[in-house]
Amino acid sequence: MSTYACPKCGNLNRVGAKFCGRCGTAITTPLDAPAGGHETGRLSANSLIHDRYVIVRTIGQGGMGAVYLATDTLDQNRVVAVKEMSNAAIPDANDRQRSVAQFQHEAQLLRRLRHPNLPVVSDEFVVGDRNYLVMEYVPGSTLQQMLSRGEGPFAESRVVAWTNQLCDVLDYLHRQQPPIIFRDLKPGNIMIMADDRLKLIDFGIARLFKPGQRQDTMLLGTQGYAAPEQYGMGQSDARSDIYALGATLFSLLTGQDPGQLAPLKPLPPVRSYRPDVSPQLETIILRATRMNAAERWQSTQELRQAIASGPLPTTERAPAPPPPPLPSPSAPTHRVTTRLLMRAARLSTGQLALAGLGLLALIVAAIFGLTQTLYRLPLIWNNVRFEAAVGPFAYAATRRRFVGGLAHAIVVLLGQWLVLEQIDRGIVTVPGLVLGAVASAAVLEGMIALLPRVLGKRTRDDAGAWQREAGWLGLAAVLAYVTLQWPANGLESALNVVAWASAFLLGAGGWFLGDLVQGYVYLKQTGVRWR
């Protein structure tokens, strides 16, 4: 029976129901795709497919395929990408049958692949004349989208970092048994995430379901990026991917589309467009794009070694791991920040920015306008260490090592000077303050490094996880306070119990605000509307 998800509570109702059976909300059933035809991308928001995946929105459309953002109701509403392909445009019944069989074969093959630069494929199924592939959702932009936005040509050092990742994932594919030849490597099939890691997002399955007329994407590749043997001049192999890699690097460095140049002719030298590119990288690209496959690099590892052997810019740091994913819409969660986000998800970016600027202005005004007054009050205000919130906030907002410690050290040095100057009180010892700032930052980072052990096997949304995380970072703020005050202001100041309590509360509060920021950024990246 066809069902439809309530837009308010997510309850599954039969198609045609006027009100939700759980919450009573009036619902409007989406229009089904027309019977027959080969149109894709017709699944409406909140429609259920395969009795499992709830469609959130369409995120891609073209040719005989579409891609949806969806949630997996059988896997804690995990956010996934559902790729839809239609074979109805193939007129011959035997060809359609072969296409479906090949799709299922390749989908099964992809499900067993596990590599950091490949999206995880979890499911495939057929509904009528449409074939579906379910995979990990990868937020970000393709290199083609970045080029179209005018972000290219890209710096050589950045292109080299991407090249190393591409060589690694292509080598992984080529070492499979039997070898997997990507055959359609191009900027449009390379997704770049926020930390500059990349993922290949299209294994050419869609080409099996496209009509026979000539389009931009050929039978075995894209014009300008496909090697000569992919035009019927020979059998494609791993060296065909190396040609496409060279053409892709040419495009990223020059901003030129190889498909607009003379077909089946050698690509011009990169330095004719970009004289600042190193001669070595130009030579590597020229060899990768030789017309004769025997004259190219014979493996991606050979190409990568050529890059590593010379003075190419390789100053890019290894990409940091992505932040842990938030639960998808309607997923059960015990995390207080996630529950708050569910209520605040409808705020626009402008509204959030306005609120943040207002809060920042209020804090600055309080520092300049109230410091002297608060300092004269007895006991408590003298012991409030506002810098205790900075480190936990920076870590929780970014989920990256060393960010919290660095932010803490900077704010301690600047904040101590600002506050002490406001109350006409000199810094006790500048070397002691510097030592305390560095040591307390190290203590904070050490506590952050131990956080996974404190959480154990708990995920971010399990009961008790957020309390442990907030409490641990509050304790980290206390230890950082002691480590800061001892060399800067003496042991008596470091052992102030009232200051310990304020540092703990501010550390936990900094975690709370940072976790809100991190969650909101993830929400905006996925475009998911929380309920």
Explain what you see.
The chain is an alpha+beta fold. It folds into three domains: 31-137, Phosphorylase Kinase, domain 1 (2-Layer Sandwich), CATH 3.30.200; 138-318, Transferase(Phosphotransferase) domain 1 (Transferase(Phosphotransferase), domain 1); 336-526, no CATH class. It is 43% helix and 11% strand. The strands form four sheets. Strands 3-4-5-6-8-7 form a six-stranded antiparallel sheet, covered by helices on one side. Strand 10 (190-192) and strand 11 (198-200) form a beta hairpin. Helix 3 runs antiparallel to helix 6, helix 4 (238-254) packs across helix 5 and helix 7 (336-344) crosses helix 15. 37% of the residues are buried.
Could you list the spans in which at least 5 consecutive residues all have pLDDT below 50?
A: 29-37, 205-219, 313-332, 525-531
The structure class reads: alpha+beta
Main-sheet strand order equals 3-4-5-6-8-7
What does the average pLDDT come to? 76
Please state the CA-atom Rg, rounded to the nearest Å. 28 Å
Instruction: Output the helix-strand order.
Output: EEEEEEHEEEHHEEEEHHHHHHHHHHHH
Instruction: Give the amount of beta strand, in percent.
Output: 5-15%
* Helix count, DSSP H or I runs of 4 or more residues: 15
From the spread of the alpha carbons, the general shape counts as globular
Helix content: 40-55%
Indicate how many domains the architecture comprises: 3
Distance between the termini: 25 Å
Report the strand count: 13
For the report, how would you describe the main beta sheet?
6 strands, antiparallel
